[in-house]
Design a protein that fits this description.
Layout lengths: L3 H8 L4 H9 L10 H11 L4 H10 L1 H6 L1 H11 L4 E5 L7 H5 L1 H4 L4 E5 L5 H21 L2
Parallel strand pairs: 1-2
Helix pairs in contact: 2-3
Amino acid sequence: DPSAENRAALREFLKLESVKWQYTEGVPNQSVIAPETYTLDAALMARPGNADIQLDLFLDYASNVKRYPEFQAYFRKWHPPLLAVWGKNDPFFLPPGAEAFKRDIPDAEIHFYDTGHFALESNGAEIGAQIHAFLDRTIGK
């Protein structure tokens, strides 16, 4: 609902404390999250006009969900190699979302890490190694 009330409520989500929460929520050792990550994101979101762009993106998310059947049909038809690396504590994209890929691509590789939404910030080395191994197995060197 793009009402003024909802936009005002979502606007709070763009402030530094909320952006920091997005980076740190679900991360067992929050000290591994570099403060410049969320500080820079919050500063960039605070640029003139950017808040409205971000709010438009939030409110447009439903159009993505409406297209899920198209994505799923593509997956069922073509069975592309798929690697999903996921923060098991992500407050936005829950583990069942990753597990759902296996319904359409039974060979999909799903890996959960004990972290939150921005998994690369806390588990970059492990995830990078996982990506390299996946690419070596699926497309070769």
